[in-house]
């Protein structure tokens, strides 16, 4: 498995640069007839929308790709999940009236989410790996075991509904990577659990496993409350040759109904799956326990929503807020200048969490001074806050956070390419979250070098 800290850092740096022109924001001109939605105080109980899953096979001609996309967008769907499109441009994949999210790259950009901007505004977006097994045969051009899912959390234009959409593509069972189906589903299920804290979740993509096949992971999917729309209609339609391997999953099926589901023949070797669904958000479902998954989150600094602008910093605050008594939170940052972060660290300390901060800020902020006054500056204690000059040899990003226990996660490491300051909300920021012990220890080693 390729899970080295240096690789994570290189990826985070490259993505932070590459995403500057790709984080498409709400407010694009809508295409076609305008959609009238209810006012916030008259929200409808049931909301109807269309979801499309389309594997647009790589290697097709531009004319074939355009023809397939025309079929995908024929009904002006609310959401589209695509596969195998890393080499196609955003402009081709998201026509007028649509926005697109993916992290650019050969592997990270293969499975974007596209949505209608007249109906939905983006609140948060990110990318996570679902398998990270390198290696390929001499006849292969890509490492088939390296797979990423892209996700967005969206709020309806009337403010009444929040929903998350995930686009994924599970690796096929092949040499030299073996069978990655079960660990990939576990990653997707963990992501669905995390996103479910904000509302209903849709996951659409190529599972590379036949619906009636012996290895179809029904029990595992059910454990994450993921139900395929094929179950909900009682009808299985072939999507690849004679097999059904493309799926739209809903989390908490009691909230959803499928009013129509069809497939569309494409030039691609997959048929597109088109589902018309209704959502009843007033059906009560159990809230998920807070959790974290490996991947990264990007904020939207030009959004009118404070939630969207603070998507990264809010997850850092969540990690601190869920640390139990006896846990240790270590923070290294170029500047701590956010009052909500200060309150989270202060509250953590008061409930028995060990809080350790090193700031490289030359002129201490109000928040840094307050934390030093509360914790003291002696590193002989279990909690402290100190100021140190920036050390290039420490190898740390602008902000690094390490929490050895939070939610149901052990050893959460967070890298952010911006200081832990309120102005993070005004700039594009990317937070990289990792749960691997090796990554955590590498971050902590950098933290130790920084405070010497």
TrEMBL record:
Source superkingdom: Bacteria
Record-annotated Endonuclease/exonuclease/phosphatase domain positions = 68-270
What the entry lists under InterPro entries is as follows:
Endo/exonu/phosph_ase_sf, Endo/exonuclease/phosphatase
Identification of the protein by name: Endonuclease/exonuclease/phosphatase domain-containing protein
Give the source species. Nocardioides aromaticivorans
């Amino acid at each position: 498995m390729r899970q080295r800290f240096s690789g994570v850092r290189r990826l985070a740096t490259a993505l932070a640069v590459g995403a500057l022109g790709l984080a498409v924001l709400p407010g694009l001109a809508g295409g076609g007839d305008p959609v009238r939605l209810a006012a916030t105080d008259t929200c409808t109980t049931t909301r109807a929308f269309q979801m499309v899953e389309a594997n647009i096979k790589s290697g097709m001609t531009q004319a074939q790709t355009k023809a397939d996309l025309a079929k995908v967008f024929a009904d002006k769907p609310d959401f589209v999940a695509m596969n195998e499109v890393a080499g196609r441009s955003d402009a081709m994949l998201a026509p007028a009236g649509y926005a697109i999210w993916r992290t650019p790259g050969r592997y990270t950009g293969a499975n974007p989410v596209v949505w209608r901007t007249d109906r939905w505004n983006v609140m948060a977006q990110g990318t996570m790996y679902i398998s990270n097994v390198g290696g390929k045969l001499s006849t292969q051009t890509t490492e088939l075991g390296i797979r990423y899912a892209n996700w967005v959390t969206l709020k309806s234009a009337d403010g009444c509904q929040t929903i998350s959409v995930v686009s994924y593509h599970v690796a096929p069972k092949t040499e030299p990577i073996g069978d990655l189906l079960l660990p990939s589903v576990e990653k997707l299920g963990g992501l669905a659990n995390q996103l479910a804290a904000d509302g209903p979740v849709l996951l659409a993509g190529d599972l590379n496993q036949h619906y009636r096949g012996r290895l179809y992971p029904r029990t595992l999917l059910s454990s994450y409350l993921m139900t395929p729309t094929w179950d909900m209609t009682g009808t299985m339609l072939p999507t690849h040759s004679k097999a059904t391997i493309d799926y739209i999953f809903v989390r908490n099926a009691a909230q959803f109904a499928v009013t129509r589901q069809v497939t569309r023949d494409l030039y691609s070797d997959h048929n597109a799956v088109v589902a018309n669904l209704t959502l009843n958000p007033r059906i009560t479902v159990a809230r998920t326990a807070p959790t974290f998954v490996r991947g990264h989150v990007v904020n939207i600094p030009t959004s009118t929503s404070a939630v969207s602008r603070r998507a990264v910093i809010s997850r850092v605050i969540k990690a601190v807020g869920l640390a139990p008594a006896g846990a240790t939170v270590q923070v290294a940052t170029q500047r701590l200048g956010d009052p909500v972060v200060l309150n989270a660290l202060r509250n953590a300390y008061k409930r028995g969490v060990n809080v350790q901060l090193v700031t490289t800020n030359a002129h201490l902020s109000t928040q840094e001074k307050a934390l030093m006054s509360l914790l003291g500056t002696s590193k002989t204690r279990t909690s402290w806050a100190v100021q140190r000059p920036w050390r290039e040899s420490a190898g740390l990003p602008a902000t690094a956070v390490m929490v050895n226990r939070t939610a149901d996660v052990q050893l959460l490491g967070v890298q952010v390419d911006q200081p832990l300051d309120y102005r993070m909300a005004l700039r594009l920021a990317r937070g990289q979250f990792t749960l691997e012990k090796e990554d955590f220890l590498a971050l902590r080693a950098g933290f130790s070098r920084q405070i010497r």
